[in-house]
Design brief:
alpha/beta; Rubrerythrin, domain 2; Rossmann fold; 3 domains; six-stranded parallel β-sheet; 18 strands; 30% helix
Length: 481
């Protein structure tokens, strides 16, 4: 009978002996093996095998480890087993038929070969949790808000050992999600929230919905019960994938340690690029399993790309700005990092500046061109300017009902989300980031001077501040709330 060698790992299949680990009986010819049969060491397909001279010894090219499926004991061919007087370098196939597991007494038939990659993982000093936290740090995520508990202790301990992550413990999981959402809105960086399975995970919902509605990038890490306890009647177990599905842009459960880096890199990428919540549940037992990251598949975590509007749309917008006699600039939260560019642009076309409620503070309130917030919490002067404008240039505006932008007006709308473009019948949509679009528009329009505008703006600002001072009078009766 013939011998066949795996070209991937060097394992040799002997037709006369068969293969115990795949329950292949002695005398089974290689061409009789089922098409889905795999190398018991590296899982290569049958096509990776080639026939070799029968003089070569069958079995793995390297010593292997065999695991008892009853008690999880591992027999190492390198070391043998002193408890059964089995000397080192004894192949599992060479053990006598009556050999038994030295821990639970199970027969040889219940043992399975541990694959080569599994052996590598088992010898690693890092756990799945260690790898997750380390990869997060590498991706620039070094702040975690959370509440520790049994089903997340593996991750909490990894945070302790890492030393590069700041872990802020909160009193309620909702606060962790709210804090992570606010952190991204205010800094542009991603933070994570970490909590336990079941009730801990559900408590995140309000904070994560805040992130969803405001398009804040958040990584939500949640413990989960051990894999064998998932399903009906599990203690503190719910279908977290189903629960988080309406909230998230990415949602998964880590059920195989080899997928750790792949799922984590995807979660971070989705959170960053799609501006939302990425949720990853990690079962308690998997958190603590050893893992060698060097042999795990991963994907590149790309930074958020800059988007530049097409030339035709830019030209149409520039022509509208040139023709406008009374334009107004409205800065939204999407221009959070571009306050200086907004000011320069407004000065070039000699226009007043309004902000949305969320964007309040991205421009200095005392600047001569900045009026105030437009909307239900804004000034009547801002409303007057918006209503009489023949062109409203909107940079990163969300168009909420609180701002109440007059949609019947001519509008230039700059936004990174193409689905939100085109809010009115006269809107000129520019799909692009403010940081790229504002300089391009500035290059395409001429410098303007509108006589009397600066004096009018100054008068409006004075009237608004006088009104605020009057309403804040501590001697007024009744006392202001």
């Amino acid at each position: 009978m013939s011998h066949w060698r795996c070209s991937v790992c060097g394992y040799i299949y002997d037709e006369e002996i068969g293969e115990p680990s795949t329950k292949t009986k002695p005398g089974t010819r290689f061409d009789e093996l089922p098409e889905n049969w795999r190398c018991p060491v590296c899982a290569a397909e049958k096509s990776a095998f080639s026939q070799i001279p029968e003089s070569e010894t069958s079995g793995p090219a390297l010593s292997m480890i065999w695991r008892c499926t009853v008690c999880n004991y591992r027999y190492n061919e390198d070391t043998g087993e002193p408890a059964t007087n089995t000397p080192p370098d004894t192949r599992f196939a060479a053990l006598p038929e009556d050999w038994r597991c030295p821990v639970c007494g199970a027969a040889r038939a219940v043992f399975v070969m541990v694959r080569k990659d599994t052996i590598t993982h088992e010898q690693s000093e890092k756990t799945v949790s260690d790898v997750i936290i380390g990869e997060m740090v590498s991706a620039g995520i070094d702040l975690i808000f959370g509440l520790p508990g049994t089903s997340s202790l593996g991750l909490v301990d990894a945070i302790r050992k890492n030393g590069k992550v700041r872990y802020i413990v909160v009193r309620h999981e909702e606060a962790a999600a709210m804090a992570a959402s606010a952190y991204n809105k205010l800094t542009g960086r991603i933070a994570a929230c970490l909590t336990i399975a079941g009730p801990g995970a559900t408590n995140l919902a309000t904070g994560l919905y805040d992130a969803k509605e405001d398009r804040a990038s958040v990584l939500s890490l949640n413990g989960q019960v051990e894999v064998q306890y998932t399903g009906e009647y599990g203690m503190q177990e719910i279908d977290q994938d189903a629960f988080f599905r309406p909230i998230t842009v990415y949602n998964n459960t880590l059920s195989d340690r080899k997928m750790t880096l792949l799922l984590l890199s995807r979660a971070i990428r989705y959170a960053r690029i799609r501006h939302g919540v990425a949720q990853l549940s990690i079962p308690n037992d998997i958190q603590k399993q050893p893992l060698d990251p060097s042999i795990c598949r991963r994907e590149v975590i790309i930074p958020e790309p800059a988007v530049i509007p097409d030339a035709k749309a830019l030209k149409e917008a520039a022509e509208a700005i040139e023709a406008a006699e009374n334009p107004v600039v409205l800065a939204g939260f999407g221009a959070y990092d571009d306050g200086a560019a907004v000011l320069r642009f407004a000065e070039q076309i000699d226009a007043s500046i309004l902000t949305t409620y969320r964007a309040k503070g991205i421009l200095p309130e005392d600047h001569p061109r900045v009026i105030s917030v437009l909307g239900s919490v804004g000034s009547p002067q801002a409303r007057l300017l918006a209503e009489r404008a023949d062109l409203i240039i909107c940079f990163g505006v969300g168009f909420s009902k609180f701002t109440n932008v007059p949609l019947e007006s001519r509008i230039i709308q700059v936004d990174t989300n193409p689905l939100r473009l085109g809010v009115g019948s006269q809107t000129i949509p520019l799909w692009g980031t403010c940081s790229e679009t504002i300089p391009l528009l500035s290059q395409m329009v001429s410098k303007k001077t509108r006589p009397g505008l600066s004096d009018e703006i100054a008068g409006m600002k004075k009237a608004w501040f006088d009104q605020l001072d009057l309403e804040a009078d501590p001697h007024a009766v009744p006392i202001r709330p």
